[in-house]
C-alpha cells in the first residue's frame, strides 16, 4: 500500500537560531507588543549586540516568521554591585561591557509574541541559553526577572512576601513562575531595576541557573593582576650576505626576549627587506618579487623560534606573493604552540604602490593567544581609528603595530595615532620600528624609529600613558609589562569610560565584513 499523502504541507518547523540583522524589524515589533509602556530597544542596541556578542542573541522562528527572541552578554558577575540595575549590567542596553572571558552568561531579555504563547517558545529559548553556557563552559546563567503581576498585590504584601508566595505556588506570576520551573534559583530582589517597569514596581528577582558541567580552567577564580610581558625589537637594518645572517640576527632578539620571560617578541614592519641587500636587483618591483621567494624560509624560521624559545612572536611583516600574483604586506603571529595567523595590511601607502605595487588587504582580524585577544595593525593602518575600534569591539586588549618610517614626520604620525588609539579604546598599543640604513636598496635607504608601549591615560597606568620607549634610532629592545586586569577594571571604573560612554544613538562604526 502506497501512502500518497504529502506530509510536508502539514509541517511547520520551529527552530531556534542566532539572530541576524534581517531579524531586527521583527524583534522591534514584537517588543512593542510584549512590553507596552516600556522603553523599547532601538535599532542601534541590536546592532551593538550582534557586533559584540552575536552567539548570545537568539530568535525563535516558526514557519519562516520570527516569534520570539532572547538577548544576553558575558560578565564576571562578582564585579557588579549587589544592587545593580538593568542599565548597569547592560551599559544602557548596548552591552559594550561584555567580557569575552566572563564566567557568567547574563540574560537581559526574553520575549515571545502573544499569539504564540503556550507553545513552549520561551522554554526553547531558555534551553538554547543553557546549551550556550555549556558550550562556552560558563559557570552559570544569571537573569534579572520581572514580576509583572506584583502590582496586583503591592498594596497587601512586600516584594519579598510576593516572591515567597509565588515560589510556594500560592500566586501565579507569568515570569517568575516560568523561571522557577526552568531551574532558576532566587538570589535576591533588586529595587529600581527597570525604572519603566511599573507593573513590577520597578523590582526584579535576581535568579541563577548553575551549570553542573562547568569545569574551572584555573585554580584562581579571580586575578589580582594579569601581567603580560612584551619585548619590542627596534631592529637595525644593515647589509647582510645571506638569509642565514638574517636568521642569526632574529634569533638573537628572540633569545633576549625569552630570557626576560616575555610573552611576546615584536619585530618591525617589512624588516625582511633587509634580504634585498644581497639580492642585487636595482629594480624595486623585481627585487620585491625576489624577496617573496623567501616566504617559506621566513615562516619556517619564526615558527621554529616561537616553539623553541616558548614565546609568541609578532613577526613584523613580510611581502608575500599569493596565487593571484598580487603582492601583499602581511604580518604574521607565530604562537608558541606552533600555530600561525596572519593579518594583511589594509591601507597601502603611496610609496608601497609606487615602488612595489603592493595590494590592499580587506579584513580586520583579532587573534586568540594564551595572553588574551590581540590585533595587529601594520604601520599606516593604526592611523585609521575605525580599525582599532572594530578590533576593540571584537575583544582585542593589545594592538601591535609593526612600522617602518623613513623620517621623523612619518614616525610621529604612527606614534601619535597609536597613543590616541590606546586612549580612545582603553587598550594597550605597541609600536616596533626599523632603524639604520640600506644604502643600496631602493626605497629602504634610511629609517627613523623610536619604539614604544602605550597605555590609556589614567591613574592606574604609567605616567604619560607610556609603559616604556626606546632611544631614537639605536638598535635595542624595550621590555615592559602590561596588566590586562588593570585594563579590565579601568574600563569599568576609570576616570573616563570611552567604551561605555559612546553615543550609539548618534553614531556607530559598522564593519562590512
UniProtKB/TrEMBL annotation:
The keyword Hydrolase applies. Residues 14-212 form the N-acetyltransferase domain. Gene3D superfamilies: 3.40.630.30, Carbon-nitrogen hydrolase. SUPFAM superfamilies: Acyl-CoA N-acyltransferases (Nat), Carbon-nitrogen hydrolase. CDD domains: NAT_SF, nitrilase_Rim1_like. Its EC number is 3.5.1.100. Residues 228-484 form the CN hydrolase domain. GO terms for molecular function: acyltransferase activity, transferring groups other than amino-acyl groups; hydrolase activity. Keywords: Hydrolase. It holds the Pfam family CN_hydrolase. Belongs to the carbon-nitrogen hydrolase superfamily. NIT1/NIT2 family. This is (R)-stereoselective amidase. It comes from Solibacillus isronensis B3W22. The gene is ramA_2.
Amino acid at each position: 500500500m502506497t501512502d500518497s499523502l504529502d506530509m510536508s504541507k502539514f509541517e511547520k518547523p520551529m527552530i531556534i537560531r542566532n539572530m541576524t540583522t534581517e531579524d531586527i524589524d521583527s524583534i522591534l515589533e514584537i517588543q512593542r507588543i510584549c512590553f507596552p509602556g516600556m522603553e523599547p530597544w532601538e535599532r542601534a542596541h541590536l546592532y551593538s549586540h550582534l557586533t559584540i556578542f552575536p552567539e548570545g542573541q537568539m530568535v525563535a522562528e516558526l514557519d519562516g516568521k520570527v516569534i520570539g527572541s532572547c538577548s544576553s552578554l558575558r560578565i564576571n558577575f562578582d564585579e557588579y554591585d549587589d544592587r545593580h540595575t538593568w542599565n548597569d549590567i547592560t551599559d544602557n542596553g548596548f552591552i559594550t561591557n561584555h567580557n569575552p572571558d566572563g564566567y557568567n552568561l547574563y540574560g537581559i531579555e526574553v520575549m515571545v509574541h502573544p499569539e504564540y504563547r503556550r507553545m513552549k517558545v520561551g522554554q526553547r529559548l531558555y534551553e538554547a541559553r543553557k546549551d550556550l553556557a555549556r558550550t562556552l563552559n560558563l559557570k552559570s546563567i544569571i537573569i534579572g526577572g520581572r514580576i509583572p503581576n506584583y502590582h496586583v498585590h503591592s498594596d497587601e504584601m512586600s516584594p519579598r512576601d510576593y516572591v515567597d508566595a509565588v515560589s510556594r505556588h500560592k500566586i501565579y506570576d507569568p515570569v517568575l513562575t516560568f523561571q522557577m520551573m526552568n531551574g532558576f534559583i532566587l538570589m535576591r530582589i533588586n529595587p529600581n531595576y527597570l525604572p519603566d517597569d511599573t507593573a513590577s514596581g520597578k523590582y526584579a528577582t535576581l535568579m541563577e541557573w548553575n551549570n553542573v558541567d562547568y569545569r574551572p580552567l584555573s585554580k584562581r577564580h579571580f586575578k589580582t593582576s594579569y601581567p603580560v610581558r612584551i619585548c619590542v625589537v627596534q631592529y637595525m637594518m644593515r647589509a647582510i650576505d645571506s638569509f642565514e645572517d638574517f636568521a642569526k640576527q632574529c634569533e638573537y632578539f628572540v633569545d633576549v626576549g625569552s630570557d626576560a620571560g616575555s610573552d611576546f617578541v615584536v619585530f618591525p614592519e617589512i624588516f625582511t627587506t633587509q634580504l634585498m641587500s644581497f639580492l642585487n636587483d636595482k629594480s624595486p618591483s623585481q627585487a620585491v618579487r625576489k624577496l617573496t621567494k623567501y616566504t617559506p624560509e621566513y615562516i619556517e624560521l619564526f615558527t621554529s623560534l616561537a616553539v623553541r624559545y616558548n614565546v609568541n612572536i609578532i613577526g613584523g611583516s613580510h611581502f608575500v606573493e599569493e596565487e593571484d600574483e598580487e603582492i601583499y604586506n602581511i604580518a604574521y603571529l607565530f604562537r608558541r604552540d606552533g600555530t600561525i595567523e596572519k593579518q594583511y595590511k589594509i591601507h597601502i601607502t603611496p610609496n608601497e604602490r609606487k615602488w612595489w605595487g603592493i595590494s590592499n588587504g580587506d579584513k580586520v582580524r583579532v587573534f586568540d593567544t594564551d595572553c588574551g585577544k590581540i590585533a595587529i595593525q601594520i604601520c599606516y593602518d593604526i592611523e585609521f581609528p575605525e580599525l582599532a575600534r572594530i578590533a576593540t569591539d571584537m575583544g582585542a586588549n593589545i594592538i601591535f603595530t609593526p612600522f617602518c618610517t623613513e623620517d621623523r614626520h612619518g614616525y610621529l604620525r604612527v606614534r601619535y595615532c597609536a597613543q590616541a588609539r590606546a586612549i580612545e579604546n582603553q587598550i594597550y598599543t605597541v609600536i616596533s620600528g626599523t632603524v639604520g640604513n640600506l644604502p643600496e636598496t631602493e626605497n629602504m635607504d634610511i629609517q627613523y624609529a623610536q619604539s614604544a608601549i602605550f597605555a590609556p591615560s589614567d591613574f592606574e597606568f604609567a605616567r604619560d600613558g607610556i609603559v616604556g620607549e626606546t632611544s631614537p634610532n639605536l638598535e635595542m629592545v624595550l621590555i615592559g609589562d602590561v596588566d590586562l586586569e588593570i585594563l579590565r577594571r579601568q574600563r569599568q571604573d576609570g576616570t573616563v569610560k570611552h567604551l561605555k560612554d559612546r553615543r550609539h544613538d548618534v553614531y556607530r562604526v559598522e564593519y562590512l565584513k
